[in-house]
Write a structure and sequence with these properties.
It is built from two helices and five strands, in the order E-E-E-E-E-H-H. The protein is of the alpha+beta class. The protein has one domain. It has a three-stranded antiparallel β-sheet. The longest helix is centred in the last third of the chain and has 15 residues.
Amino acid sequence: MAIIKTTEDDKIEIVGVTKAIQVRTATVIKEDDVELTRSFSRRVLVSITSTHDGSSWTHTDTDMSSESAELQAVATAVWNTAAKNAQKTANEKATL
């Protein structure tokens, strides 16, 4: 009897003017190729993170190097200048 646990990003959605990437990851446990359980987790990736030191903003592009090639390709396709500028504006408004 072999028990195997796999994970897969099974749903990727692009949301809003900031082009946030919502990712649903499925975790599947199988025994002898029969699925025993499936559970889901979710996360959101944004193009820019921002910090404010009291007088100025620092905006940093999100590091996608640890993500799958598929997610990296999606980010490259949707995180254009307009989306990044919208994310910077949203971050600044949320922090103030």
